[in-house]
Amino acid sequence: QGVLLTGLGTFAMVHERFNDKEKAYVVRRPVFRLEMDVLYLQELTFPTVVIPGDVQIKPLNYRLLSRATSLPWHVVEGCVQETILLYSFQLRNRHHLSFAFKDIGVLSCEDNALCMRFYHECVTGLESKASWIALLHT
């Protein structure tokens, strides 16, 4: 239910309970917990995200990405690691670039705050029954 991108952070799907006046909802929504070296995050704030202990976190599957891209797995792994390192250096040098994740969202920095903004389709794809509640709380 979660994927670790070493040096950057963890993407996960969590269940949360929300109460309406008439009904209680349990919704699934995406979260991102930043796990970058604080050396790169000087003067930046970012939200603290708690991923429950029952969420299974696995490292990014480079072999699966290798099959999807027709590139050797070690090339895919090197590209991902170098991209994360480059992004980290850009943040450290106060170049606040956005980092887009296809079909997921954008990690961006505005007013010295680093945050993950999930695409509407990502949130509603996880939750069809109460997607409006999941959207409001993501």
Automatic annotation (TrEMBL):
Occurrences of domain CCDC81 HU (ranges): 56-129
Cellular component GO terms, alphabetical: microtubule organizing center
InterPro entries membership: CCD81, CCDC81_HU_dom_2
Chain coiled-coil ranges: none
Full protein name: CCD81 protein
Lineage: Eukaryota, Metazoa, Chordata, Craniata, Vertebrata
